[in-house]
Design a protein that fits this description.
- The protein has nine helices and seven strands.
- The chain is an alpha/beta fold and 248 residues long.
- The protein has a single domain, classed as 3-Layer(aba) Sandwich (Rossmann fold).
- The chain starts with 6 loop residues before the first strand and ends in an 8-residue tail after the last strand.
């Protein structure tokens, strides 16, 4: 219960890895704002409450400044402030498969507004409350796709890594740490929808730990990055990927 009396916002928490994050933080004692554009997030809140945790659902569109500010305001109204922010929301399950030269431009801009700039909007909405509470920690959800020339999805994640490091520098003086997690191929409904089975088999065959990850594989890293155990770590992107990407 190391996060007792802490307040965490998890975006994209209605399913998949974000849902696992929300349950884990509640299990560590945090009051969790389950924030998602999908109202199924309310079911996650109910499950957390049944398990004895404290959670509150907020509908949010991270491509909207107004919506992200309303999310932060709702967290402050419900719990008095914000200490942790986990930026997990992204267009992934419904992602259109297209190259940079052929993707519809309006869709590309919407995609980047969510997957790249959504995290920045959420930080801009939340950081002052975190500062007022004496500091906090932010974790942005990246991907190994950032280093794989993986089209506009990979570009968005690579840009998010840069945003993570720039924010770490800006927010460090306010005692707010900013790090990222880059999952490898993870067994979620979204991955099964987007990535063909033959492609997954090829990816897994090349990995030292040749199995799909599961959402719970990410949880330990998240808890570590938010905890005092990582009090002198900021601006880092930690791969949780079975060895898929090995960076010097």
């Amino acid at each position: 219960m190391q996060f007792r009396n802490k307040v965490a916002i998890v975006t994209g928490a209605a399913q998949g890895i974000g849902e696992a994050y929300a349950h884990a933080l509640a299990g560590e004692g945090a009051a969790v704002v389950v924030a998602d554009i999908d109202k199924k997030g309310q079911a996650v809140v109910e499950a957390i409450r049944r398990a004895g945790g404290d959670a509150h659902f907020v509908e949010v569109d991270v491509s909207s400044n107004e919506s992200t500010r309303a999310m932060a305001a709702a967290a402050i109204q419900q719990y008095g402030g914000i200490v942790f922010l986990v930026n997990n929301a992204a267009i992934y399950k419904t992602m259109k498969l297209a190259g940079l030269l052929g993707v519809d431009w309006d869709y590309y801009e919407k995609f980047m507004s969510v997957n790249m700039n959504g995290a920045l909007r959420c930080v801009r909405a939340c950081w002052e409350s975190m500062k007022q509470r004496g500091g906090g920690a932010i974790v942005n959800q990246s991907s190994t796709a950032a280093w794989m020339a993986a089209g506009y999805y990979g570009i968005a994640k690579l840009a998010l890594n840069g945003i993570t490091q720039s924010l770490a520098r800006e927010l460090g003086p306010h005692k707010i740490r900013v790090n990222g997690i880059a999952p490898g191929p993870t067994d979620t409904e979204a991955t099964r929808t987007v990535v063909p089975e033959f492609a997954l088999k090829g990816i897994l065959a090349s990995m030292p730990l040749s199995r799909m990850g599961v959402p719970d594989d990410m949880v330990g890293t998240l808890v570590f990055l938010l905890s005092d155990a990582s009090a002198w770590i900021t601006g880092q992107i930690l791969n949780v990927d079975g060895g898929q990407i090995m960076r010097p």
